[in-house]
Write a structure and sequence with these properties.
repeat; 1240 residues; ATP binding; NLR; seven-stranded antiparallel sheet; cytoplasm; single chain
């Protein structure tokens, strides 16, 4: 039969070279027979009984190149394992004609033939030959005559030739008409085969496919390279019990959810936790990116994209995306502007990490089809390097102390080649794509990355699509989908394609076999059943007998599975997910055992052949490694293998009870910074249950764990203290409860969320962890999240902080935030997308390291924050440096910044911030710097900011700073500027006299168009100053409509807060009868003798308290000395006096605020029964031997109440309450036995 007659209908004749020259060889001639295909030994059943010698002799780079054939036998084994390629699906394979089979049989070394002919599938014919009805081409010395290609639909000679993604050639007019008639838009079926969806954008013209213009010899090399990559990527290995089966990638590929940017739980959360965050993200906030468009800039991106880093948790689909990109390129469908795609995996590069190569040699070794490519050709070609699996790398990538390389023929270490390539020193025009799990991504400096993307796996709709495609039985798929949705953990985990397959494997087995029972609801249940299903399939495969029970099933494989468990456990601690022969041997595994479990039971453990035929092993997914590690650890505990437990715990082990064992294990896991043991610990708790013990008794051994022991373990989890632990870590305690099937906390929080009187219900710490998780995962974004609204302990309030990731406004005030908590807040600001537009962290002594962590969130391009309040946070000059740098890098959103009551900020710190005011992208409208210990030196920097051409500042608060007249003079220069847009200026209590008032009046006369409100209260403007400013109010040219100058007078020119001092008088009608007055009623002492005070309705009859007679208005300051234990308080006069309820106790109701002091110093503050410890600062601790004197400052109109410790003439700030006072305040005291307090 003539070859032309045997072609598939619609396929053009075999291609000529791009330059129109006749081909001189067939594929068989260009590819002489080579060694037998390697993929058989890697995956086929034939390997199960073979003894392998995996030792690799030392061979130089040049020798390797010579030894390897010019055209390697393609291995269809994937080079990466963390993908959904292992889940089994039922797919149809298209029939192949005899001629096509014959052609493929001539191709050397291919053990996995394509389902279609390799002849010109995606390459268009050459139209650059001489015109005429025929043209000749010489093939093997025989002249063949070929007709010009005709459209398969209209049979006319095609003038506008296009190719579909499935390889058929038609004229554009016909296919467009066909689609229009079928009323199809977007995706449409091919009019020839009808089997593959294609898109209009996917049509390729002849000129598009011929975009690589180069010489004939190089073009042939590149064509062969495309053929090699196509063979390598067009099939994927499925993890079924028919070992070695191959499936077309294009048949099973589901478009994964790839987005710009990434979620920011990378360093603080286990990957399962990251999935939970990603699973609730509203897709409307993201712009999904096709893997084929990974290098295409978005409309708002200016610079070209050269280096792309793609993150994704294990098994989510990163390598599938790489394979799909490469396959589409090799088939001529996408990214044809790229001349050469160089696909490399880090697991391959690990094998040569200690050797020296040039970049050119590296290409030749890993891609022998490119051996004829010279350094000169590389320089003029557009290359794309794809480095897959950074998380598997054992290279040392050092981007600082590097050796500079610019010559592709210069030898160096593989690590140095990669760093120079990524940084653009080697082949500056080359594109680079790196994939990684999140925890390893930080090996690449952000400055080297032009685009950061994240693969988020299956959406909810894709999860259902997977199960419906997986099973032809609709009832079965519906039951599985329904069950998946009943468990939050299972539903979230199904974002990973591999876990979908695990779920499908287990539930199909349980729903279609006699081994029915309660379907798994926890992760431990699911993985226990999965282990049994896979070992049973292995047994059936090798006809090892009839199974009667799960116990017998696992007993038979006990030894090998425990060795695998040991391997999993030891390398989980090290962070390794790839293993080599020496790793297996250290755990007592020989290659034969590994071959059986990789060749038949690939769903548990995989083996792959990589470069130089060295074996690489891994678990199908990280979670399986974690599960087997937990099984091994539990086995060691129950079988008294104390050396393993002691090595893990790093301490002597004498604990024999299960509850004690679990408690010690989870404490260790909570110390992890990235949560790498979280899932391992959850599995351990789940394995303690009787149901899972019975399933895995062959592995775990006969262990009787009493219900009382299980209950003690549950109680330990509920009581667990995690003061120094990140609140993200604490949430895993709640998940451990869920794995133990204890749903009590979950149900309690559900009831709490439904209740109307939430503030009255006290929450335990474990309840706060559960609430944080549920609020964080809620589909509904909280409008406002205020920690003070929750009735819980200080520790419980800190456990709630992760909920900040799912709210628009967050008030995290006065809760003792530490660095770990600021890290959580920063991750909320960096998340994609972030919802947080208003953040108030006032009243927390954050210190410089905590501020630095927060600023990492502020500088993120994802941060949408518009209002930031850091009142009374102990900010220093260093903190301001961090803050200014962050705002300069991302200044586009923030409108309001309140840094009031940071008296360490001072002039140098403000200078850094004022430099930001002149930034063209600065959007500040409100800046509050009340009581920041600023002097006249700060005013020059402020004036410069006010007069900036891009100034947007509308409100400036400088109250209670010692600016003086000289500072106001400098500030007035900024007010005069025509660029100044200030509308509100607050200079209350700034030591301003008549001279300063004159400067202000002059400035307002020069630029009267903006300022509407001026506050000069608590100053001394004098008569002339008052006259000038009052005249301005009447001047129609001025916009000023509010002027505050009272109170005024010389007394307000005293620096500091003591100018607000007031004399207090004790109200004797309120004094408890066991409190003794002395020193002219200015000292109060607690005594045992009852004092003879007359009855009075205002007297405290139970609690040893009193109030002062003075009602506080405006700004007031006073000092007291104490001895023993006392409460220094302010209260509304309406506080209850009679009885022993909390309504009478200072600080235990909404009527009062108090500072508790002891002989050791100030201890805590309290309001409405919410106690906040005083964070000891270096200055306060150094003065611990000083006098026990405290100061109180209240600004009633501003709603601030501040407590200080007095050391000599220095005020050491302790705490500030920011609120709204609705009644007149009165000073008060509570005195403990043997204690006293005196008014100063």
């Amino acid at each position: 039969m003539d070859q032309c007659e045997d072609r598939e209908e619609g396929v053009p004749p075999s291609k000529t070279t791009l330059c129109g020259e006749h081909e001189s060889q067939t594929k068989a001639q260009r590819n002489p027979p080579g060694p037998p295909p390697s993929s058989v030994s890697c995956k086929s059943d034939a390997s199960k009984d073979a003894m392998f010698n995996f030792k690799v002799q030392s061979v130089s780079a040049a020798e390797r190149i010579k030894v390897r054939p010019a055209e390697p036998e393609p291995s269809c084994v994937s080079l990466k394992s963390d993908l959904s390629k292992d889940f089994p699906l039922h797919f149809k394979v298209q029939p192949v004609c005899a001629a096509e089979r014959g052609q493929r049989s001539q191709s050397a070394g291919s053990s996995c033939p394509s389902v279609r002919s390799d002849v010109s599938k995606a390459d268009p014919p050459d139209f650059r030959a001489e015109p005429g009805p025929t043209r000749e081409r010489k093939r093997r010395g025989v002249c063949e005559v070929e007709q010009l290609s005709r459209c398969a639909m209209c049979q006319d000679v095609m003038k506008d030739l296009v190719s579909t993604s499935c390889g058929h050639w038609l004229c554009r007019q016909c296919i467009s008409s066909y689609w229009d008639q079928s009323a199809s838009s977007g995706d449409s079926s091919c009019p020839q085969c009808g089997e593959r969806p294609i898109t209009r954008d996917g049509l390729q013209t002849a000129s598009q496919s011929s975009c690589v213009q180069t010489d004939v010899g190089l073009q042939e090399v590149l064509d062969e390279h495309k053929i090699s990559l196509r063979r390598r990527c067009e099939h994927v290995t499925e993890g079924t019990d028919e070992t070695g089966s191959k499936t077309l990638l294009n048949t099973i590929y589901t478009v994964l959810y790839i987005t710009e940017g990434q979620s920011e739980e990378v360093h603080t959360q286990h990957e399962v936790r990251q999935l939970k965050t990603a699973s609730k993200i509203d897709v409307l906030h993201d712009t999904p990116i096709r893997c084929q468009d990974i290098f295409k800039a978005l409309s708002d991106q200016q610079r070209p994209i050269r280096v792309v880093l793609t993150n994704g948790v294990a098994g989510v689909g990163k390598t599938f995306s790489v394979q799909k990109f490469t396959l589409d390129w090799a088939e001529g469908l996408e990214n044809q502007h790229v001349s050469v795609v160089v696909l490399l995996s880090f697991r391959e590069l690990n094998l040569i990490r200690d050797e020296q190569y040039s970049l050119l040699e590296l290409l030749h070794v890993f891609h022998p089809t490119l051996q004829k490519v010279t350094a000169e050709k590389l320089a003029v070609s557009q290359l794309l390097f794809i480095f897959d699996g950074l998380d598997e790398s054992r290279l040392s990538l050092d981007f600082t102390n590097r050796k500079l390389l610019s010559d592709v023929t210069q030898k160096s270490s593989v690590s140095q080649l990669l760093t120079n390539l990524i940084q653009g020193n080697l082949l500056p025009s080359a594109l680079v794509w790196i994939t990684s799990r999140p925890a390893a991504a930080n090996q690449i400096p952000p400055t080297c990355v032009d685009r950061l993307t994240e693969v988020r796996g299956f959406t909810d709709a894709q999860k259902e699509e997977y199960f419906r495609r997986r099973f032809s039985d609709e009832e079965l798929s519906s039951r599985i989908i329904s069950h998946m949705k009943t468990s939050r953990s299972l539903h979230i985990m199904c974002s990973i394609p591999v876990f979908c397959w695990i779920t499908a494997t287990v539930l199909e087995h349980m729903l279609t076999t006699e081994q029915r029972g309660e379907l798994p609801k926890t992760l431990t249940d699911m993985y226990s059943h999965f282990l049994l299903v896979q070992t049973k399939r292995k047994k059936n495969k090798y006809h090892e007998g009839h199974e009667t029970s799960p116990q017998e099933l696992t007993e038979a494989d006990r030894e090998v599975l425990l060795k695998l468990g040991r391997l999993a456990f030891e390398h989980l601690e090290k962070g390794n997910i790839m293993f080599y022969q020496e790793d297996l041997e250290q755990c007592g595994l020989d290659v034969t055992e590994a071959s059986v479990y990789s060749g038949v039971c690939t769903e548990i453990f995989k083996r792959e052949c990589v470069i130089f035929q060295k074996q690489v092993y891994c678990f199908v997914h990280l979670s399986i490694q974690e599960f087997l590690a937990a099984v091994y650890m539990f086995h060691c505990f129950t079988n008294r293998k104390t050396e393993v437990v002691e090595e893990f715990m790093k301490t002597d082990w004498k604990e024999s009870s299960v509850d004690g064992f679990l408690e010690r294990i989870i404490y260790k896991s909570l110390q992890s910074k990235n949560g790498h043991l979280d899932l391992f610990v959850r599995f351990l708790h789940g394995l303690s249950l009787g149901s899972n013990q019975r399933l895995l008794v062959g592995l775990l051994g006969q262990t009787e764990i009493s219900p009382e022991t299980i209950q003690r373990a549950i109680n330990n989890l509920k009581k667990m203290n995690s003061d120094d632990i990140s609140p993200d870590r604490s949430i895993n305690i709640f998940h451990c409860l869920m794995e133990m099937n204890d749903l009590s906390v979950h149900q309690e929080i559900q009831e709490f969320l439904k209740s109307e009187n939430r503030s009255e219900r006290f929450l335990s710490e474990i309840q706060c962890s559960a609430l944080a998780f549920m609020l964080q995962m809620s589909e509904e974004v909280l409008d406002e999240f205020d920690l003070q609204e929750y009735n819980t302990s200080w520790q419980g309030r800190l456990r709630l902080i992760p909920a900040v990731r799912n709210c628009r406004k967050a008030r995290l005030t006065q809760c003792g935030l530490l660095e770990t908590h600021c890290e959580v807040v920063a991750s909320a600001l960096k998340s994609n997308p972030s919802q947080l537009t208003e953040l108030d962290m006032s009243g927390n002594d954050m210190r410089d390291p905590a501020v630095k962590l927060l600023c990492a969130g502020l500088e993120s391009p994802n941060c949408p924050l518009e209002t930031l309040r850091l009142v009374d946070c102990g900010l220093s000059e260093v903190s301001c440096d961090y803050l200014a740098a962050a705002l300069k890098s991302n200044p586009s959103h923030l409108r309001v910044l309140d840094l009031s009551q940071n008296n360490k900020l001072q002039d140098p710190g403000l200078k850094q911030l004022c430099g930001f005011l002149e930034n063209p992208r600065c959007r500040f409208e409100t800046l509050r710097l009340n009581h920041c210990d600023l002097s006249e030196r700060s005013c020059e920097a402020l004036a410069s900011g006010l007069s900036s051409q891009t100034s947007n500042l509308r409100e400036l608060d400088l109250n209670n700073n010692n600016l003086k007249d000289s500072g106001v003079k400098l500030l007035s220069e900024g007010l005069k500027s025509s660029h100044c847009t200030l509308e509100t200026l607050s200079l209350s209590g700034c030591l301003i006299t008549e001279e300063g008032s004159t400067f202000l009046a002059s400035a307002l006369s020069a630029n009267p168009s903006h300022l509407r409100e001026l506050d000069l209260s608590y100053n001394h403007p004098g008569d002339s100053g008052m006259k000038l400013l009052s005249a301005g109010l009447k001047d129609p040219g001025w916009r000023l409509d509010t002027l505050r100058v009272e109170p005024a007078g010389v007394r307000w020119l005293r620096p500091g807060l003591r100018k607000y001092s007031c004399q207090l008088t004790i109200d004797t009608n309120t004094v408890n009868t066991e409190l003794q007055l002395s020193d002219n009623n200015r000292k109060v002492t607690r005594v045992k003798e009852v004092q003879s005070y007359p009855d009075h309705p205002d007297r405290f009859d139970v609690y040893h308290q009193l109030l002062c007679r003075n009602g506080l208005t405006g700004r007031c300051y006073w000092e007291v000395e104490w001895r023993g234990n006392v409460d220094i308080s302010v209260s509304y006069r309406s506080i209850r006096r009679k009885g022993g309820s909390d309504d009478c106790v200072f600080g235990h109701n909404d009527q009062s605020w108090s500072l508790y002091c002891s002989d050791y110093g100030p201890d805590s503050v309290c309001h409405n029964k919410r106690q906040t410890p005083i964070s000891p600062s270096p200055s306060s601790s150094s003065s611990s031997s000083g006098s026990n004197r405290a100061a109180v400052y209240v600004d009633c109109p501003a709603g601030t109440l501040s407590f200080y410790r007095v050391s000599s003439d220095t005020l050491i700030h302790l705490h500030t309450f920011n609120t709204t006072f609705t009644q007149t305040l009165y000073p008060g005291f509570y005195v403990s036995p043997g204690s006293s307090v005196s008014l100063c």
